[in-house]
Amino acid sequence: MADWKKLLKDILLADGTMDTSETEFLMRSFLDDGVIDQEEIDFLVDLQKSATSTCKEFDDFVLTARKK
Fold first, then answer.
1. Can you tell me whether residue 20 is helix, strand or coil?
2. Do residues 55 and 19 touch, judged by C-beta distance below 8 A?
3. What secondary structure letter does DSSP report for 40?
4. What is the pLDDT of residues 50-68, one digit of tens each?
């Protein structure tokens, strides 16, 4: 079985950036159960560090997730 984090990271960062539509996808997916767990927070932080650029919505989402 493929590592979902590596696969998703490769797809989301194919162009090196995190844009609004990608952020909305992650928000819908991660907030579906109403809770962002530590594994998801770690994944978001890794995306933020790995991206060449991020949109404001993504940065705000990561900041909000880290505060919980």
1. helix
2. yes
3. H
4. 999 999 999 999 999 999 7
End-to-end Cα distance, the chain: 31
Cβ atoms of 55 and 25 within 8 Å: the answer is no
Check: CB of residue 59 under 8 Å from CB of residue 48.
yes
- What whole-number distance in Å separates Cα of residue 26 and Cα of residue 45? 13
φ and ψ of 52, to 5 deg: -75, -25
Check residues 4 and 24 and name the one with the higher pLDDT.
Answer: 24
Domain spans in the chain, listed from the N-terminal domain onward: 4-67
SS3 22: helix
Of 30, 35, 6, 28, the C-alpha closest to 47 is 6
Predicted model pTM: 0.91
